[in-house]
Amino acid sequence: MSRLPWLRKLSRAGSSTRQLRRPDSRCFSTTTELPVLEHGQLYGDLPGFARSLGTACRVGEGGAGCFLISQLPPHINMLHQELLQSARDFFALPLAKKERVDYHLSPEFRGFMRQGAENTAGHVDEREQIEFGREEARPTAGREDPSSLYNRLR
């Protein structure tokens, strides 16, 4: 990573670092640091940014599988704050209200998933979450063609 000067590692100075995975799970990173990519480099050195992005996301080769982007423009930071507040507001709702958008109600399995609904590597995920994606026009009623299941799930 030393060849990628603007890919920095963010670690917690003065305190113990936190693992980004369960110790018994092989599908997550073993790193305790989160890579930071600088937004300005996206425009100044796109090939370098792409290499750093690939390095950061490569879980099996020491990458974290995720990253932070620093030095974002103010309008993007404001959008992030609005999105975070919307998420906090949603997850603070009573369960009955969140279940109005339950993923079982969606043919594409998009929507609210209650705590314990999913598992990763054989372990129950202890979180609530929202599954979302691009909205598509609903297929018209009639005889289903062989690709209809695929089309429903994309």
TrEMBL record:
Taxonomic superkingdom: Eukaryota
InterPro entries: DIOX_N (IPR026992), IPNS-like_sf (IPR027443)
A Pfam family this chain is assigned to: DIOX_N
Region (Disordered): 119-154
Residue ranges annotated for the Non-haem dioxygenase N-terminal domain, each copy included: 47-137
Transmembrane segments: none
Biased composition (Basic and acidic residues): 123-146
Protein name (database record): Cid13 protein
Organism annotation: Symbiodinium pilosum (Dinoflagellate)
Gene: cid13
